[in-house]
């Protein structure tokens, strides 16, 4: 099984590398988002406002008070840094969904038939898709991270290789769970429109009900409840904890949660995929 | 003789509709066996069951002694399938498609490269191997499908309508490919709704109609079951068609005008021909020919319907549509 999985994963990688327009497009979206949200909503800009008739000294004090408040809420005075780190988690979500589209397409163009009639375990078809997505996310996250740095993302001063590795690990855990779920689902869908509809239904709510764009304590309490079980939140929190040093009371609890959830989603995705591949 | 494929009472129902309704046959080693039938006869469904892509509702089939229901993994090792719908990844090159296929069948990198080259050359695709499949012509795509199915040297090859949508020239080209594979000893199950194709290639033909096999035999045997032959008389002057017809009818023969010729249905042409010749003494005749019964006539006699039925949708135009959507 391993060799078939490797061959098919290699195929995923080769296809992806050769399809440059898709590669570029998949990067443009998150960069656009970072720029849009991060730069235009920069909170300190609000504080820089000049208010007519108020003495300069008072303004200075208000400004510093607000900065402290912003720092306390976001873990950084720079909202751009907040969004850029959160976007790493959101990006894994989007890419996991994109990866699943390939499954529907391969059924449509008939390539899946080719695989189903080959003497390879059907699980290798599923795993190659998941691994392919995880590979893509790894590379794209690195690119996104670099671009974030170039655009002015501020890391914590004490950042080390372990933090970067941990960040990657957190993103991979999230990707494993989400890719498994979406891939498994895609094996049971024959029409890509249905998948796009599901993507629209799932992606934005998952993003907004997480701490990726806004901190939890700014949310109404019902949304906080949702955000607390949302794996995007846990990943975003872990990434911020590791990259910019935003305090996180129990990082290990988040790791454990992500691991457990990913395993469950892997199981669900695997069974769904097996079901979807029973007959061609 | 050894039976390589053996289907016993295969039934496939789709929501209560019996697409295949109790099909049994066996194919001997090295034989080319055809399923001939019109659209919707159940040919593809039969092939899908034999190649483990569909589970039979009831019945079973054996390929090289392995049950398709109980040992699908072993069956997959020994068969090659060229499905009716194209399967190659048109974003990759012909080489990629074949090479990956070889790797999936467990060949090492070196073996896979050698084998990929071998089958691509065999199919006359070596020069186009490094081109994206999206740029291939319909005939090339079909040959690529066959190349992909041959990487593991299957002992049984299923060809589901391999010439569908091809022009006459590419179709002939593909026939030669099929004949070459047969010469190499591959057992082949072919489906088609072109009777010339079944007639030209097959050792034995099973005529399929509405999910059932209505007759099996060599093309000659099947045709021998249709009584009679046809004599065609073509007058030099087309204006004399009616006159020829009348003269022949006066001689007690059954005559019809078909596409510029007068057709005579007779028991045995060789004994009737002298009589026809003497009756037509006063007419300038361009040609006279004898037609042996064709599989088409066999089919008409067995089912009361013609083989062609409604025309096929060209599968390539569908693929092209998908490709353009993808861009
Ligand atoms: N998945 C399916 N669900 C429902 N009906 C099906 C399915 N597959 C095939 N059928 C039906 O079963 C019948 C036989 O189809 P099949 O594709 O086997 O015919 P065929 O002989 O291959 O025809 P063609 O020459 O058009 O390829 C048809 O009436 C078809 O509509
Ligand atoms: Mg068919």
How helical, in percent, are the residues of chain A? over 70%
CATH topology of the largest domain in chain B: Rossmann fold
| N/C terminus separation of chain B | 52 Å
Oligomer: heterodimer
- The secondary structure category of chain B is alpha/beta
* Percent of residues in beta strands of chain B: 25-35%
Largest sheet of chain A: none
Globular, elongated, flat, extended or rod-shaped: what is the shape of chain A?
A: elongated
Mean pLDDT of chain B: 87
Molecular structure report:
The complex is a heterodimer of chains A (280) and B (327). With 280 residues, chain A is mainly alpha-helical. Chain A folds into two domains: 2-40 and 78-276, no CATH class; 43-77. Chain A is built from twelve helices and no strands. Chain A has helices spanning 2-18, 20-40, 43-48, 56-74, 79-108, 111-116, 122-150, 161-186, 192-208, 221-229, 231-243, 251-276. In chain A, helix 2 runs antiparallel to helix 5, helix 5 (79-108) crosses helix 11 (231-243) and helix 11 (231-243) packs across helix 12 (251-276). The longest helix of chain A is centred in the middle third of the chain and has 30 residues, at 79-108. Chain B has 327 residues and is of the alpha/beta class. Chain B has two domains: 3-223, P-loop containing nucleotide triphosphate hydrolases (Rossmann fold, 3-Layer(aba) Sandwich); 227-292, UreE, C-terminal domain (Alpha-Beta Plaits, 2-Layer Sandwich). Chain B is 38% helix and 27% strand. Chain B has twelve helices and 14 strands. In chain B, the strands form three sheets. Chain B has a six-stranded mixed β-sheet with strand order 6-7-8-3-9-10, sandwiched between helices. In chain B, helix 3 runs parallel beside helix 5 (138-150) and helix 4 (109-122) crosses helix 5 (138-150). Chain B starts with a strand and ends with a helix. Mean pLDDT of chain B is 87; it is low at 310-327. At the A-B interface, helix 1, helix 5 and helix 6 of A face helix 2, helix 3 and helix 12 of B. The structure holds adenosine-5'-triphosphate and magnesium ion. Magnesium ion (MG) binds next to helix 1 of chain B. The site of adenosine-5'-triphosphate (ATP) has 13 residues of chain B, from helix 1.
């Amino acid at each position: 099984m391993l060799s078939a999985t490797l061959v098919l994963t290699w195929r995923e990688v080769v296809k992806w590398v050769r399809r440059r327009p898709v590669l570029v497009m998949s990067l443009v979206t998150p960069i656009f988002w970072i720029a849009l949200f991060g730069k235009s909503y920069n909170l300190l800009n609000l504080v820089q406002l000049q208010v007519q008739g108020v003495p300069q000294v008072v303004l200075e004090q208000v400004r510093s008070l607000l900065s402290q408040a912003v720092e306390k809420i976001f873990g950084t005075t720079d909202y751009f840094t907040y969004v850029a780190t959160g976007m790493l988690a959101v990006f894994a979500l989007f890419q996991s969904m994109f990866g699943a589209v390939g499954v529907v397409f391969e059924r449509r163009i008939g390539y899946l038939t080719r695989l189903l009639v080959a003497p390879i375990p059907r699980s290798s078809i599923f795993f190659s898709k998941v691994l392919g997505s995880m590979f893509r996310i790894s590379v794209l996250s690195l690119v996104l991270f670099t671009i974030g740095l170039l655009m002015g993302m501020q890391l914590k001063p004490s950042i080390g290789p372990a933090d970067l590795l941990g960040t990657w690990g957190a993103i991979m855990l999230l990707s494993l769970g989400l890719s498994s779920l979406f891939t498994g689902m895609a094996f049971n869908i024959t029409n890509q429109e249905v998948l796009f509809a599901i993507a629209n239904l799932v992606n934005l709510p998952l993003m907004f009900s997480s701490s990726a764009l806004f901190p939890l304590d700014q949310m109404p309490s019902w949304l906080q409840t949702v955000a607390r079980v949302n794996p995007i939140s846990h990943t975003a929190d872990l990434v911020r904890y590791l990259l910019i040093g935003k305090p996180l009371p129990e990082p290990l609890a988040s790791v454990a949660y992500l691991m457990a959830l990913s395993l469950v989603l892997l199981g669900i995705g695997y069974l769904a995929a097996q079901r979807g591949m029973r007959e061609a | 003789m050894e039976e390589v494929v053996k289907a016993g009472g295969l039934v496939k129902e789709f929501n209560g509709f019996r697409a295949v309704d109790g099909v049994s046959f066996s194919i001997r080693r090295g034989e080319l066996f055809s399923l001939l039938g019109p659209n919707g006869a159940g040919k593809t469904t039969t092939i899908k069951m034999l190649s483990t892509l569909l589970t039979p509702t009831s019945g079973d089939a054996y390929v090289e002694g392995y049950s398709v229901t109980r040992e699908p993994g072993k069956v997959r090792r020994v068969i090659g399938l060229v499905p009716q719908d194209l399967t190659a990844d048109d974003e990759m090159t012909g080489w990629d498609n074949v090479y990956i296929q070889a790797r999936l069948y467990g060949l090492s990198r070196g073996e896979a490269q050698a084998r990929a080259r071998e089958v691509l050359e065999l199919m006359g695709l070596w020069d186009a191997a490094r081109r994206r499949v999206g740029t291939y012509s319909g005939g090339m795509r079909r040959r690529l499908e066959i190349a992909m199915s041959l990487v593991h040297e299957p002992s049984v090859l299923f060809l589901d309508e391999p010439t569908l949508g091809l022009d006459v020239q590419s179709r002939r080209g593909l026939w030669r490919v099929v004949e070459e594979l047969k010469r190499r000893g591959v057992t082949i199950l072919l489906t088609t709704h072109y009777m010339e194709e079944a007639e030209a290639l097959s050792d034995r033909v099973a005529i399929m109609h509405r999910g059932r096999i209505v007759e099996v035999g060599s093309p000659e045997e099947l045709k021998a079951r249709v009584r009679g032959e046809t004599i065609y008389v073509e007058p030099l002057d087309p204006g004399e068609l009616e006159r020829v017809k009348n003269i022949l009818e006066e001689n007690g023969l059954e005559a019809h005008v078909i596409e510029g010729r007068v057709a005579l249905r007779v028991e045995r042409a060789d004994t009737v021909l002298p009589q026809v010749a003497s009756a037509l003494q006063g007419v300038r005749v361009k040609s006279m020919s004898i037609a042996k019964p064709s599989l088409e006539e066999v089919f008409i006699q067995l089912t009361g319907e013609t083989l062609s039925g409604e025309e096929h949708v060209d599968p390539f135009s569908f693929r092209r549509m998908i490709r353009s959507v993808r861009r």
